[in-house]
Design goal:
single chain; 130 residues; alpha/beta; Rossmann fold; two-stranded parallel ribbon; 6 helices; 5 strands; 38% helix; globular
Amino acid sequence: MPGVAETVRRVKAAGVAVCVASQGKLAKTRLSLKLTKLDDLFPDDVLFSAYSVPRGKPHPDLFLHASQAMAAEPTRCAVIEDTPSGVTAAVAAGMRAFGYAADSDAAALREAGAELFGAMEELAGLLRVG
């Protein structure tokens, strides 16, 4: 996905903590990050899996677990999602949801409660960082 690494670096440089909260197993997340050369941006202690909570998306459990582990109030968290179930989970957790609509159903993301964006380069501005 073009612009992801640069965007994550900008967000982190602004002092904002980042993590990955995935519906998949941690091994799959680690492999995906390695294949996309993003693994250096996300150490193991900021990787979270729905397999660690009672209920996955669209329930808020995963995002609430991640925010607690990151010592962040849910209302101060932003979630970047490309699925309606993920947006639903973020909204249910009381978090601000951004829907990456470049390859997803924009209408479904919006209906689930996301603020839409179409390019990763837009995200830092939406988050008002760097």
